[in-house]
């Protein structure tokens, strides 16, 4: 074919006036059509089959008892994550400290709380009141200064939040520690050479850089925990999963109620994924030469490309856009 | 003679069974530029790192302007200082690394202002004004709000120099400041350093740039196998070395 030669000649004289014809990808088209057909079939099955009970889904999706359960799930997740990551960060710093006793205590904690299944830990905390009727503060094996009834201190809600947080802390500790280890040791050396105080070295220099690898892993954990809160149904707490069970035991619409729960879990995780994206951008500052576009920017860009394509502009003229 | 700005005396340092510094003595007078040359592995970096106590030495002492960096003297005993006090004393010593080690998540301006404010507790206004001045001095006025990754290697190293100077240190240590740079960027960094030297900054520079040593140094020190083999004015050490080891090294690098 002589096309390359022709292109070469003309490109030299008037590249700007040429029209670019995009390469064709028939394979992509076929795959796209197949997926579209499958999707249409799935939607059809979902919408037309009365077994899905959409009217019931609609009726219960914003039912006050369901909304309360969603809120409780959100609260449990927030408590579990915030307390879990606070304790996890402390554990990670202990693990990285130069004091052997602190480091081994943190190691022991992670070992214990990662090894025992969450459901077992939850039941354990729930029944702690039975194990220790009184919780007293004082000298070990010696006199107690004051004591409280454990039933007062650890109600089912506290037990659930505590159980989730303590379990989460073990994983958070490893994520945070991994983040710190991912920071170039030269950073700490430079901070030390500049005489920056130790705490400031950790929180101003190391942690923000560690966040780049902590955030994606933490996002995973949070989304895991949103769904993980469903295990506290064994403690008969009114979180989302328990609540829909209560409702379908009453009205018998199992599928519809499970759909209600599924839709809410989808909504929560979608919101969290969006938040994660923006947090990642925040901590990516300065670490990449250019920031990745936000979802909103991406949509705008796609639209503007479409508009430009309609106007048939040659691609070479589009140099102002990256 | 007045107290030397840097006084390194009988310094020994080992890593396990490997003795890296074997009795090093070095005095640097205020305003003087000392260039250290020597083969790879001879202990040049270890010596610089010992001077600002990034490495603990096994024997001997290092004093900056008459004050020990990592220790407090009482009678004939040296007491090791706590980390907090060592960090405070270290702000008297600027350090410029081969690989810059700028903080990538902070802007150029934040890189420079961080230590004077957090380590020395100086008022932010004063430090900000000084930063503007220093960035101008290293030719980077326009880059104050850029992030390090957006700069060339030579620009990053000049920021690192400004960052070290912002502490108003008594001495600035440079460990091969141009070795990580593309050849065409070496000149801009050396020019900044030469201007500093002319301005009277006390400097100790480890470098393989013999031209810089010849032009800028007051004293050239040749190190080999953990010892200072010879030292003197550049004309003497570089052109009429008294030792075979110096001659052998110079014949390789020149
Ligand atoms: N942390 C360490 N642990 C063990 N050995 C080390 C350590 N740091 C340096 N060394 C050894 O000490 C010796 C001196 O190292 P140093 O970095 O001071 O040499 P240098 O003169 O700066 O060399 P170069 O010109 O290659 O930078 C080398 O043999 C090196 O392998
Ligand atoms: Mg070195």
TrEMBL record, chain A:
Subcellular location(s) of the protein: Cell membrane
Keyword Oxidoreductase part of the UniProt annotation: no
Entries under Pfam families matching the protein: BPD_transp_1 (PF00528)
Span of domain ABC transmembrane type-1: 70-276
Molecular-function GO term, any one: transmembrane transporter activity
Cellular compartments per GO CC: ATP-binding cassette (ABC) transporter complex
Spans traversing the lipid bilayer: 29-47, 67-94, 106-126, 254-275
PANTHER family xrefs: L-CYSTINE TRANSPORT SYSTEM PERMEASE PROTEIN TCYL, MEMBRANE COMPONENT OF AMINO ACID ABC TRANSPORTER
Protein name: Amino acid ABC transporter membrane protein, PAAT family
Taxonomic source organism: Microbispora rosea
UniProtKB/TrEMBL annotation, chain B:
UniProt KW Mitochondrion keyword: no
Localization terms from the record: Cell membrane
Swiss-Prot/TrEMBL keywords: Amino-acid transport, ATP-binding, Cell membrane, Membrane, Nucleotide-binding, Transport
Protein's membrane topology: Peripheral membrane protein
Gene3D superfamilies (UniProt xref): P-loop containing nucleotide triphosphate hydrolases
Family: Belongs to the ABC transporter superfamily.
PANTHER family: AMINO ACID IMPORT ATP-BINDING PROTEIN, GLUTAMATE_ASPARTATE IMPORT ATP-BINDING PROTEIN GLTL
Protein's name in the database: ABC-type polar-amino-acid transporter
Organism name: Microbispora rosea
